[in-house]
Write a structure and sequence with these properties.
Blueprint (H helix, E strand, L loop, with lengths): L6 E6 L5 H10 L16 E7 L2 E7 L1 H5 L4 H5 L2 H9 L2 E7 L6 H13 L3 E6 L4 H6 L11 E3 L8 H17 L12 E7 L6 H12 L2 E6 L6 E7 L2 E5 L2 H10 L5 H14 L3 E7 L6 H13 L2 E7 L8 H15 L8 E3 L8 H15 L5 H14 L12 E8 L4 E6 L7 H15 L7 E6 L7
Bound molecules: guanosine-5'-diphosphate.
Amino acid sequence: MPIRLPQVVLVGRPNVGKSTLFNRIVGSRRAIVAPVPGTTRDVIQQPAVWQEVAFTLTDTGGMFGASEDPLHQLVLEHGQRALRTADLLVLVVDGREGLLSGDHAIAKTIRSLDRPALVAINKTDDRRAHAAAAEFHELGFEPTVPISAEHGTGVAELLDEIVERLKERHANDGEEGRAPEPPELGIAIVGRPNVGKSSLVNRLLREERMLVSDMPGTTRDAVDALLRWHRRVFRIVDTAGMRRPGRVARSGKVEAISVLAARRAIEQADVVVLVIDAVEGATDQDGSIAGEVERAGRGIVIAVNKWDLVKGQGADFSDTFDDKLRFQLKFLEYAPMIHLSARTGERTPKLLELIDKVAQARRTRVKTPELNRFVEEITARNPPVSPGSRHVRILYATQTAVAPPTFVFFTNVATKFHFSYERFLVNQLRERFNFVGTPIRLHVRRRSSSRRA
Ligand code: GDP
């Protein structure tokens, strides 16, 4: 089976030097190239390899060249597909001309497509252009790499950045590539047998009276239920998986199997509802499931079900229960928690609200200037702490992905932050930008252009 190579796509206004860069990359001695059959005139593709990372490089040159208006050109079918399927966009700009509105327009389109991007500032072979390169940070993509496609300077650094980003992306595989506003939101309802998962799904479907269908999926086991809520469609994934553990209960392998079923559902979900039995409380098993959710980068809501059975016990009970649960599921302190009853329907509508809120948070994108104001503020109060390196400064930061929100902090030296400092940053980000119920990923990188300074 052919492996799909990651797609790197060059975009930019006409005459910024995309084709020169394209030829420079695929023609350079350190990149291995072979022609791809079936490529079109307007969009040229070639495979390339850099530092053992293979990717397909696409030049959208023809597509942009035909018109002065890049936005108009963006709708051209081939180019648009290239943009939509791109794993990484390289926005090529002209360092001599400086930042133009056409660059802003393309940047805006890139953001609307929700693709990760970096900036190649071309034609920076003279010192003046090199000095002017700073303004391109405004585009909101990092890093910005000064190059000269014609002379080849900076191209190796650019390729380093490209493969670095592809590797990062690969590490996050399966979490990205969704449309900015998903038409459907995948919800996984997971938890141990008999906590009331099926009852909860039935309740949600009944309440909304909007059951679209019980859809038999492509495989025998997959059964999803669709539910319309306000303007959204929630797909409750793998409802068959949640029933299976019940049957296995008698074989004594309950716990392991329920984690397996959960894992499958989690894969397909945007937001996971971890159901806990109010009488039984949480177990280690819930901890493992929660760990899966965190690792997979999904949003999470903790639903304490069967609250009808315990609510007579007063506020103290409620507080103690919550404290204990928070303690048991320590690393999920960011997950919103709700007490509800699938039997009586108490607070089940609120669950949908929470799910939606978490889904939104997971897709939140913080604008680079806003993010950097925030970084300045908190580093002024709490400078970075990293093991070993003394004078670590955060130069700037950028959000490179959503779902889950992923941030890169660029520093003056290659380093890692101290664990506690990293946690501090994550918590601050969470608070400031209201990242409720979603994991946050954080990377630290040395700013590339600092090596050429
Ligand atoms: P699942 O294995 O997690 O899907 O659990 P089920 O939905 O099959 O529920 C297990 C048992 O708990 C059933 O007997 C349900 O009637 C009961 N149950 C589910 N939700 C509630 C609830 O909110 N309150 C009470 N009292 N019982 C519930």
